[in-house]
Amino acid sequence: MGELGAVLAAVLPSIGVGLVFWFVVRALVQADRRERLALARLDAEDRARREAERRTVLDEGRPQDEPRTGDDDVAEGPRAQE
């Protein structure tokens, strides 16, 4: 048992450090994944809010019974005149 004990004493610290490293890296990857999902969700909400605001601005100048045309998507402003 003396030889087996010496082998285990030599190998177990390396296995322990490897497991700690694996848990830390796994936690970092999962945290990054959750952060990316949260940012994507916030970006989608922001994009939807801006689109709703843009549609509201476009619809304010048109009577309700007038149909929408493809020209509604054209940006108005200094860059549109270039």
UniProtKB/TrEMBL annotation:
Bias kind Basic and acidic residues: ranges: 46-71
Parts of the chain that traverse the membrane: 6-29
Region (Disordered): 46-82
Organism superkingdom: Bacteria
Keywords, alphabetical: Membrane, Transmembrane, Transmembrane helix
Protein name listed in UniProt: Uncharacterized protein
Organism: Cellulomonas marina
